[in-house]
Amino acid sequence: MLYRAVRPLLFALDPETAHCLSLASLDALTRLGAAVVSAPPRIPVRVMGLDFPNPVGLAAGMDKNGEHIDGLAAFGFGFLEVGAVTPRPQPGNPRPRLFRLPEAEALINRLGFNNGGVDALVENIRRSRYRGILGVNVGRNFDTPNDRAVEDYVACLRKVYAHASFVTANISSPNTKDLRALQRSDGLDGLLVALTAERDRLARQHGKRVPLAVKVAPDLDEAAIEAIADRVAARGIDAVIATNTTVSREGVEHLAASREQGGLSGAPLKARATAVVARLRRALPASVAIIGVGGIASAADAQEKLDAGASLVQLYTALVYRGPELVGEIVRGLAAGRVR
Predict the structure, then answer these.
(1) Do 158 and 202 meet the contact criterion of CB atoms below 8 Å apart?
(2) Which 3 state secondary structure label does DSSP give 197?
(3) Where along the chain do its domains lie?
(4) What pLDDT is stored for residue 340 in this prediction?
(5) Coil, helix or strand for 105?
(6) What is the enclosing helix (H) or strand (E) of 26?
(7) At 338, is the pLDDT very low, low, confident or very high (cuts 50, 70, 90)?
(8) Could you give the strand order of the β-sheet that contains 98-101, starting from the edge strand earlier in sequence?
(9) Which of 34, 214, 227, 301 registers the highest number of CB atoms within 10 A of its CB?
(10) Per-residue pLDDT tens digits for 27-68
C-alpha cells in the first residue's frame, strides 16, 4: 500500500535517480528497524546443494555493488543475487541509460556493468548482516577483449568465492560490446573449463564447494540453446539462469521508448524467457538446475516458470511497478497453490 502511494512521485523522476533514491530510503528504514513487509511463509527447496527458504529470489542488477543487501533481504526473498561486478571499477554507459515503458510494465536499460569493482563489492558483503543465500554475478570489464575474458571471470571468482553462496558468470548482457559472443560453443567451453578448474582449486583451499551458474540470453535459437546445455553439462556447471534481457522489441514497437538501445525486461519478456527455460530443461540433465527470470509479476507467472522446468525464480522489473509487497504475494500464492 505504501509503495502504491509513493510510486507516482518516483515515476516523476528519472528512472536511475528514482532507483537510487528508493534504495537509499530502504537503507534508512532498515537502519531504523522498520518492517518493510510481513514475512512470507517458508517453502523450503534444495537446489544446487543449497537450502532455500523459498524459491523466489532477487535478480542481479538491482544492487550491483552489494550496498543494499540488508534492506533488500527484508522483502522476504528466498535468496539474493548481487552484481554484475567486474574486476576493475567502471562507470558504465553514458546517462540516460534506463527507461520505463509503463504501458507494458517494462524497462529498457543500457547500463553497461556500471559498478565499483569487485573489491568494493566484497567489502560491502563483509559489512552486511545478511546470512541467507547470496549469489554474486560476475562479468568482464568493457575494455577486456573476449580472448582475455576468462582472466576477468576467474579474477572475480577468486575474490568473491569465500563470500558467495553461488557465483554466476554473466555472458549475456547486451550492453557490453561482444559479450554475448561468449555464449558460442568455442568461447564458452574455454570459459567453463577455466571456471570449474579454479572452483575446484578454491574448494580445496576454503573447504567448501561453491556452485557455479551461467546466465544466458533470451534471444538464442534452438541450436544455440542445445549447444550451451551440452557444454554446461559436460563441464560440471550447477545451474543456468534463464534469462537476461532481450534485444527484441516484439510487442512494444508502438511505444516511443522502444527505440532506445539496450535490453528489454519485464512483462514483454515473459513468454520468450519461459520458452528458453523449457528448451533448456529438455536439453539439460536433471542434475543441472534452472533459475527462471523474465516477466514474473504474480504467483501464476512464477508457477509458469516452475512448470516449464525452473527450480527457482527471480524478480527485478516487476518490483519497480508493484513494489516490495510483490515478493510476499508470490510466495504466499505458491505456498497456497493459488496462482492467478
Answers:
(1) yes
(2) helix
(3) 2-334
(4) 45
(5) coil
(6) helix 15-31
(7) low
(8) 98-101, 106-109, 263-266
(9) 214
(10) 998 887 777 788 999 999 999 999 999 999 999 999 999 999
* Grid cell at residue 185: 560453443
Distances (CA, A) of 237 to 78, 131, 212, 312: 22, 24, 6, 16
Say if CB 273 and CB 296 are below 8 A apart.
no
> Is residue 43 helix, strand or coil?
coil
The torsion defined by the Cα of 192, 317, 165 and 120, in degrees rounded to 10, comes to: 90
Q: What is the CATH number of domain 2-334?
A: 3.20.20.70
What residues are labeled active site? 173
Residue 71's nearest CA partner among 3, 39, 25 is: 25
65 touches 23 (CB < 8 A)? no
Q: Is 287 exposed, middle or buried (0-12, 13-18, 19+ CB in 10 A)?
A: exposed
Nearest of 155, 71, 154, 162 to residue 123 by alpha carbon: 162
Q: Is the pLDDT of residue 152 over 90?
A: yes
